[in-house]
Amino acid sequence: DAGITQSPRHKVTETGTPVTLRCHQTENHRYMYWYRQDPGHGLRLIHYSYGVKDTDKGEVSDGYSVSRSKTEDFLLTLESATSSQTSVYFCAIRAPTEETQYFGPGTRLLVL
Amino acid sequence: DQQVKQNSPSLSVQEGRISILNCDYTNSMFDYFLWYKKYPAEGPTFLISISSIKDKNEDGRFTVFLNKSAKHLSLHIVPSQPGDSAVYFCAAAASGGSYIPTFGRGTSLIVHP
Question: Looking at residues A96-109, what average pLDDT do you find?
Protein backbone atom coordinates (compact mmCIF):
# COMPACT_ATOMS: atom_id res chain seq x y z
CA ASP A 1 0.00 0.00 0.00
CA ALA A 2 1.14 3.51 -0.81
CA GLY A 3 2.12 5.42 2.31
CA ILE A 4 -0.66 7.96 2.57
CA THR A 5 -2.35 9.02 5.76
CA GLN A 6 -5.09 11.53 6.34
CA SER A 7 -5.94 13.28 9.57
CA PRO A 8 -8.33 13.57 11.17
CA ARG A 9 -10.30 10.58 9.90
CA HIS A 10 -13.56 11.98 11.22
CA LYS A 11 -14.53 15.48 12.21
CA VAL A 12 -17.68 17.25 13.27
CA THR A 13 -17.63 21.02 13.21
CA GLU A 14 -20.00 23.96 13.20
CA THR A 15 -20.86 26.30 10.38
CA GLY A 16 -18.48 29.23 10.18
CA THR A 17 -15.51 27.58 11.84
CA PRO A 18 -12.20 27.01 10.04
CA VAL A 19 -11.16 23.44 9.39
CA THR A 20 -7.84 22.03 8.20
CA LEU A 21 -7.40 18.54 6.85
CA ARG A 22 -3.96 17.03 6.49
CA CYS A 23 -2.60 14.60 3.95
CA HIS A 24 0.79 13.06 4.62
CA GLN A 25 2.77 10.81 2.26
CA THR A 26 5.95 8.83 2.69
CA GLU A 27 6.43 8.11 -1.03
CA ASN A 28 8.07 11.41 -1.95
CA HIS A 29 5.69 11.76 -4.91
CA ARG A 30 5.55 15.10 -6.64
CA TYR A 31 1.83 15.27 -7.34
CA MET A 32 -0.84 15.48 -4.64
CA TYR A 33 -4.59 15.97 -5.01
CA TRP A 34 -7.60 16.70 -2.86
CA TYR A 35 -10.99 15.29 -3.89
CA ARG A 36 -14.41 15.25 -2.33
CA GLN A 37 -16.87 12.44 -2.77
CA ASP A 38 -20.57 13.03 -2.55
CA PRO A 39 -23.51 10.76 -3.40
CA GLY A 40 -24.40 11.12 -7.06
CA HIS A 41 -21.26 13.11 -7.85
CA GLY A 42 -18.39 10.67 -7.73
CA LEU A 43 -14.96 12.13 -7.06
CA ARG A 44 -14.52 15.82 -7.76
CA LEU A 45 -11.17 17.57 -7.71
CA ILE A 46 -10.81 20.46 -5.26
CA HIS A 47 -7.15 21.44 -5.59
CA TYR A 48 -3.95 19.79 -6.64
CA SER A 49 -0.23 20.34 -6.22
CA TYR A 50 2.59 19.68 -8.65
CA GLY A 51 5.37 20.50 -6.23
CA VAL A 52 6.25 22.35 -3.06
CA LYS A 53 4.44 25.69 -3.07
CA ASP A 54 2.96 24.89 -6.51
CA THR A 55 -0.79 24.43 -6.40
CA ASP A 56 -3.74 24.95 -8.68
CA LYS A 57 -7.53 24.92 -8.53
CA GLY A 58 -9.74 22.04 -9.45
CA GLU A 59 -13.37 21.74 -10.42
CA VAL A 60 -14.87 22.63 -7.01
CA SER A 61 -12.32 24.93 -5.37
CA ASP A 62 -14.64 27.65 -4.05
CA GLY A 63 -14.46 27.87 -0.26
CA TYR A 64 -11.24 25.86 -0.07
CA SER A 65 -7.57 26.75 0.07
CA VAL A 66 -4.48 24.54 0.14
CA SER A 67 -0.87 24.75 1.11
CA ARG A 68 2.16 22.59 0.47
CA SER A 69 5.29 23.72 2.28
CA LYS A 70 6.90 20.25 2.28
CA THR A 71 6.84 17.45 -0.25
CA GLU A 72 5.17 15.09 2.19
CA ASP A 73 2.31 17.29 3.42
CA PHE A 74 -0.66 18.77 1.58
CA LEU A 75 -3.14 20.72 3.69
CA LEU A 76 -6.72 21.50 2.77
CA THR A 77 -8.38 24.39 4.61
CA LEU A 78 -12.02 25.31 4.76
CA GLU A 79 -11.79 28.96 5.77
CA SER A 80 -15.36 29.10 7.05
CA ALA A 81 -17.09 25.75 6.90
CA THR A 82 -20.59 25.50 5.45
CA SER A 83 -23.08 22.64 5.50
CA SER A 84 -22.53 22.13 1.77
CA GLN A 85 -18.96 21.11 2.59
CA THR A 86 -20.15 18.08 4.51
CA SER A 87 -18.50 15.32 2.53
CA VAL A 88 -15.84 12.66 2.45
CA TYR A 89 -12.46 14.07 1.48
CA PHE A 90 -9.78 12.00 -0.20
CA CYS A 91 -6.17 12.82 -0.77
CA ALA A 92 -4.28 11.18 -3.63
CA ILE A 93 -0.67 11.07 -4.74
CA ARG A 94 0.99 10.29 -8.05
CA ALA A 95 4.52 9.82 -9.25
CA PRO A 96 5.49 11.82 -12.38
CA THR A 97 6.29 8.64 -14.30
CA GLU A 98 2.96 6.97 -13.59
CA GLU A 99 -0.65 7.58 -14.55
CA THR A 100 -2.04 5.85 -11.47
CA GLN A 101 -3.15 7.81 -8.43
CA TYR A 102 -3.00 6.29 -4.98
CA PHE A 103 -5.64 7.39 -2.52
CA GLY A 104 -5.63 7.89 1.21
CA PRO A 105 -8.28 6.40 3.51
CA GLY A 106 -10.41 9.55 3.55
CA THR A 107 -11.69 12.07 6.07
CA ARG A 108 -15.38 12.18 6.85
CA LEU A 109 -16.40 15.76 7.63
CA LEU A 110 -19.75 16.80 9.02
CA VAL A 111 -20.56 20.51 9.20
CA LEU A 112 -23.54 21.26 11.43
CA ASP B 1 -21.37 18.83 -18.10
CA GLN B 2 -20.01 15.38 -17.44
CA GLN B 3 -17.04 14.40 -19.54
CA VAL B 4 -17.02 10.88 -18.06
CA LYS B 5 -20.34 9.15 -17.62
CA GLN B 6 -21.25 5.96 -15.85
CA ASN B 7 -24.91 5.70 -16.66
CA SER B 8 -25.69 2.73 -14.45
CA PRO B 9 -25.65 3.73 -10.77
CA SER B 10 -25.93 0.10 -9.73
CA LEU B 11 -25.56 -3.43 -11.04
CA SER B 12 -26.55 -6.72 -9.48
CA VAL B 13 -24.95 -9.98 -10.61
CA GLN B 14 -24.96 -13.59 -9.49
CA GLU B 15 -21.71 -15.08 -8.22
CA GLY B 16 -19.81 -16.84 -10.99
CA ARG B 17 -21.42 -14.82 -13.77
CA ILE B 18 -19.90 -11.96 -15.73
CA SER B 19 -20.14 -8.36 -14.53
CA ILE B 20 -19.96 -5.66 -17.19
CA LEU B 21 -19.53 -2.06 -16.10
CA ASN B 22 -19.76 0.64 -18.73
CA CYS B 23 -18.26 4.09 -19.10
CA ASP B 24 -18.63 6.74 -21.80
CA TYR B 25 -16.52 9.82 -22.35
CA THR B 26 -16.88 12.94 -24.47
CA ASN B 27 -13.43 14.54 -24.50
CA SER B 28 -11.39 13.41 -27.51
CA MET B 29 -8.20 14.48 -25.74
CA PHE B 30 -8.52 11.66 -23.22
CA ASP B 31 -5.94 8.99 -23.98
CA TYR B 32 -5.60 7.11 -20.74
CA PHE B 33 -8.36 5.37 -18.85
CA LEU B 34 -8.46 3.82 -15.40
CA TRP B 35 -10.83 1.87 -13.21
CA TYR B 36 -10.81 2.22 -9.46
CA LYS B 37 -12.60 0.10 -6.91
CA LYS B 38 -13.91 1.48 -3.65
CA TYR B 39 -15.13 -0.33 -0.57
CA PRO B 40 -17.17 1.53 2.08
CA ALA B 41 -15.09 3.62 4.49
CA GLU B 42 -11.94 3.12 2.41
CA GLY B 43 -10.17 5.11 -0.26
CA PRO B 44 -10.41 4.11 -3.92
CA THR B 45 -7.82 1.58 -5.08
CA PHE B 46 -6.48 1.24 -8.58
CA LEU B 47 -7.80 -1.77 -10.46
CA ILE B 48 -6.80 -1.68 -14.11
CA SER B 49 -5.99 0.82 -16.83
CA ILE B 50 -5.71 1.09 -20.59
CA SER B 51 -3.94 3.43 -22.95
CA SER B 52 -5.64 4.64 -26.11
CA ILE B 53 -3.09 2.76 -28.23
CA LYS B 54 -4.72 -0.49 -27.09
CA ASP B 55 -8.26 -1.79 -27.27
CA LYS B 56 -7.99 -4.40 -24.55
CA ASN B 57 -6.09 -4.95 -21.35
CA GLU B 58 -6.42 -7.98 -19.14
CA ASP B 59 -5.38 -8.65 -15.56
CA GLY B 60 -6.61 -11.90 -14.12
CA ARG B 61 -10.39 -11.82 -13.83
CA PHE B 62 -10.53 -8.18 -14.94
CA THR B 63 -10.51 -7.01 -18.56
CA VAL B 64 -10.99 -3.49 -19.83
CA PHE B 65 -12.12 -2.88 -23.40
CA LEU B 66 -11.76 0.44 -25.16
CA ASN B 67 -13.76 1.49 -28.21
CA LYS B 68 -12.27 4.81 -29.25
CA SER B 69 -14.65 5.47 -32.11
CA ALA B 70 -17.60 5.13 -29.75
CA LYS B 71 -15.77 6.83 -26.87
CA HIS B 72 -16.76 3.90 -24.72
CA LEU B 73 -14.97 1.59 -22.34
CA SER B 74 -16.13 -1.33 -20.31
CA LEU B 75 -14.82 -3.38 -17.42
CA HIS B 76 -15.52 -7.10 -17.47
CA ILE B 77 -15.19 -9.19 -14.33
CA VAL B 78 -15.23 -12.94 -14.92
CA PRO B 79 -16.16 -14.80 -12.82
CA SER B 80 -17.73 -12.37 -10.39
CA GLN B 81 -17.18 -13.00 -6.69
CA PRO B 82 -18.98 -11.61 -3.63
CA GLY B 83 -15.75 -9.79 -2.68
CA ASP B 84 -16.07 -7.80 -5.89
CA SER B 85 -19.06 -5.99 -4.40
CA ALA B 86 -17.94 -2.36 -4.33
CA VAL B 87 -18.31 0.95 -6.12
CA TYR B 88 -16.36 1.13 -9.36
CA PHE B 89 -15.17 4.47 -10.72
CA CYS B 90 -14.12 5.04 -14.27
CA ALA B 91 -11.55 7.80 -14.84
CA ALA B 92 -10.07 9.37 -17.95
CA ALA B 93 -7.12 11.66 -18.48
CA ALA B 94 -5.16 13.42 -21.19
CA SER B 95 -1.48 12.53 -20.89
CA GLY B 96 1.00 15.32 -20.71
CA GLY B 97 0.44 18.66 -19.10
CA SER B 98 -0.86 18.52 -15.56
CA TYR B 99 -2.61 15.14 -16.07
CA ILE B 100 -5.83 15.65 -14.15
CA PRO B 101 -8.06 12.58 -14.28
CA THR B 102 -11.80 13.14 -14.57
CA PHE B 103 -13.92 10.63 -12.70
CA GLY B 104 -17.35 9.24 -13.42
CA ARG B 105 -19.99 9.07 -10.72
CA GLY B 106 -19.43 5.41 -10.04
CA THR B 107 -21.37 2.16 -10.38
CA SER B 108 -22.24 0.13 -7.31
CA LEU B 109 -21.75 -3.56 -8.04
CA ILE B 110 -23.42 -6.16 -5.87
CA VAL B 111 -22.46 -9.78 -6.40
CA HIS B 112 -24.94 -12.18 -4.84
CA PRO B 113 -23.72 -15.55 -3.52
Answer: 92
